[in-house]
Design goal:
globular, mainly alpha, two-stranded antiparallel ribbon, 58% helix, 73 residues
Length: 73
């Protein structure tokens, strides 16, 4: 049985690796940042929560918005 995804604080790279486990960590982070940048609705929601593209840590609220619009890793 697969473990349910936990909404909590994540390091940006940690969350990126959950989405993209089969590529290098730096590449996974770049790809997740690109997905966020491309999704205008997600970018707007994250910006309202104080997100900056250089953030290393994502709050539970930010993670919740990401999985709502991108899907669960």
């Amino acid at each position: 049985m697969e473990k349910e995804f936990e909404i909590r604080t994540y390091g940006f790279g940690e969350l990126a690796r959950l989405y993209l486990p089969n590529i290098k960590p730096a590449s996974a982070s770049k790809r997740l940042r690109a997905w966020i940048k491309k999704n205008q609705k997600l970018t707007k929601l994250l910006n309202q929560l104080g997100y900056k593209h250089t953030d290393k840590v994502l709050t539970p609220n930010m993670v919740q918005k990401i999985i709502y619009l991108i899907g669960t890793p």
